[in-house]
Specification:
Strand content: 5-15%
Distance between the termini: 80 Å
Number of domains: 2
Number of strands: 5
Low-confidence stretches: 59-91
Strand order of the largest sheet: 4-1-5
């Protein structure tokens, strides 16, 4: 592998040999292979984000040097995921959409689980919950009586009890 690599993506993030992130590597910018963390070097070259520089590329900027501003805001930005990094994946590509979908599904499942637990605590005869019941139980009671969940989910328990009392009248 050539010691010099050329960035192919509009923007690529990579860790240096010490594990800390290097400045962004822009399209057609050069970076020395020895500056990159071995795992990132392998992944970025396999994925085609960095390719061996060829003679005549004519670019001399090396990561860490002062860079000219990037012209053209229509390019997609790729921030590559690193399995060992603690930060979440940052990308505008389909893998980011999949990550967001998984996160949303997980959050939806947690909400459904909490709602089911609150519903299980409702009296079976349809009467109002005991005054000691939690806010989530009162929310489910009002939802069962026709309230919109999104309208009452964040309301204080005392206000939910007042609303329930008003609905009885």
């Amino acid at each position: 592998m050539s010691d010099l690599l050329r960035g192919v993506a509009p923007l690529t993030m990579a860790r240096g040999i010490t594990g800390s992130y290097l400045p962004p590597i822009y399209r057609n910018q050069m970076v020395r292979a020895g500056q990159l963390h071995p795992a990132d070097l392998k992944r970025l070259t396999e994925w085609g984000y960095l390719v061996p520089a060829e003679k005549g590329d004519g670019h001399s900027a090396v990561a860490g040097a002062a860079l000219p501003p990037v012209i053209g805001h229509d390019d997609e930005v790729f921030l590559v995921d690193h399995p060992s990094a603690q930060e979440p994946v940052l990308s505008t590509g389909p893998e980011r959409s999949a990550t967001l979908d998984r996160e949303k599904a997980k959050a939806d499942a947690e909400i459904a689980e909490k709602r089911a637990a609150a519903k299980a605590k409702l009296p079976t005869d349809g009467s109002a919950p005991d005054g000691r019941a939690g806010q989530a139980v009162w929310v489910e009671y009002l939802v069962a009586r026709g309230s919109n969940y999104d309208d009452v989910k964040d309301v204080d328990k005392a206000d939910l009890q007042k609303l329930a009392e008003q609905q009885k009248s």
